[in-house]
Design brief:
The protein has 392 residues and is an alpha/beta fold. The chain has a domain at 2-149: NAD(P)-binding Rossmann-like Domain (Rossmann fold), CATH 3.40.50.720. Helix content is 45%, strand content 16%. Helix 6 runs parallel beside helix 10, helix 9 (212-220) crosses helix 14 and helix 14 (327-343) runs antiparallel to helix 15. The longest helix is centred in the C-terminal third of the chain and has 21 residues, at 371-391. Bound molecules: nicotinamide-adenine-dinucleotide and magnesium ion. Magnesium ion binds at residues 151-153, 227.
Amino acid sequence: MKNITILGATGSIGVSTLDVVKRHADKYQVTALTANSNIDVLFEQCLEFKPEYAVVVKADKAEEFKAKIAGTAISNMTVLSGADALITVATLEQVDSVMAAIVGAAGLLSALAAAKAGKTILLANKESLVMSGDIFMQAVTDAGAVLLPIDSEHNAIFQCMPANYTAGHDAPTARRILLTASGGPFRTTPIDQLDDVTVDQAVAHPKWSMGRKISVDSATMMNKGLELIEACLLFNMTPEQIQVVIHPQSIIHSMVDYVDGSVLAQMGNPDMRIPIAHAMAWPERFDSGVAPLDIFGVQQMDFEPADLQRFPCLRLAMEAISAGGIMPTVLNAANEIAVEAFLNEQIRFTDIPVVIEQSMAKFSATQADTIEHILDADQQAREQAHQAIKAL
Ligand code: NAD
Ligand code: MG
């Protein structure tokens, strides 16, 4: 029996994770569930999975939550609040696995704490890895933690890597990664119409159902940019070894090209329960609840290069990883601020890359040796992004 903490339980990945847990109650038991403020969903989840701990980050919502559980079957549960409580439940002695499914930089310190505590980390929160880079990977190695990618592409690549491969190490016979992308909702929209796309259009992804932030990232293709950086770190490859491939059907989730010319692909229906179940069962396999792939229903698979003119965010991510140092941290922070402003209808869709580019221009790619340095760069980049938004 494994004990799991799910950070970001109330989100899209959190809900899918609990769906998989439910199918394997003989193998997984929930120790802690966390939410930022969505106490209604958290309450239902706690009633069903009976964790020892629940974290509600927002203090006022935590008080409301305590009142809500009084007199119910879960009244004995320990309820914590504040960002530090995320670290507490990510590092509990009895916890084996931590699902890192908080969105954005808010998930960094808890994911890093899980790494330092030597846990098995199921990493969905790509922003935490992008912003802290080598520091995160070093923490995993130093503590003997196990890092398993949940991002569907990286999970696919991991599955296509040689047997016994561990994240962060060299795979000398793997010469290239083909990182697939659906192209999002605006793959064929005339470029001159992108100025006017609405929030609803941007978050309506053609193939995947996801949280709002990653949905916008998919529409700008910043998601693929973050994933390119994520892949460099997880698989110890240079950006030149990673080719982005638009594959609108989203059946192949990425590929590894070997020195003998063999290309291995992982395929499946676009449902995050597949990578989640893979990582939870690893190195075994178990049922994810996803319907078998109907290969005859697929009929056709297309592949095309990514258009950097249409998707400037992808170009900016490529520039950030090439520059190195704190530049991916700056990219990520500026993107978070720009996406939030777009979701709040303060800026246009096409302003997102403008804000990021102007923010990046204010920084040089200095090396960061400590997490404090990373957090400092993150904070400064957020301020620059706010300035850039004001100046639009
Ligand atoms: P979501 O918005 O649906 O859920 C986010 C979760 O994080 C919620 O539980 C929320 O309560 C919590 N949260 C938000 N802000 C917080 C804060 N300040 N402090 C603590 N908790 C906070 O997001 P999602 O789509 O589930 O994505 C989660 C992560 O997984 C992201 O990093 C995303 O890039 C990654 N990911 C998601 C998918 C997907 O299909 N949804 C696929 C690949 C990777
Ligand atoms: Mg992905």
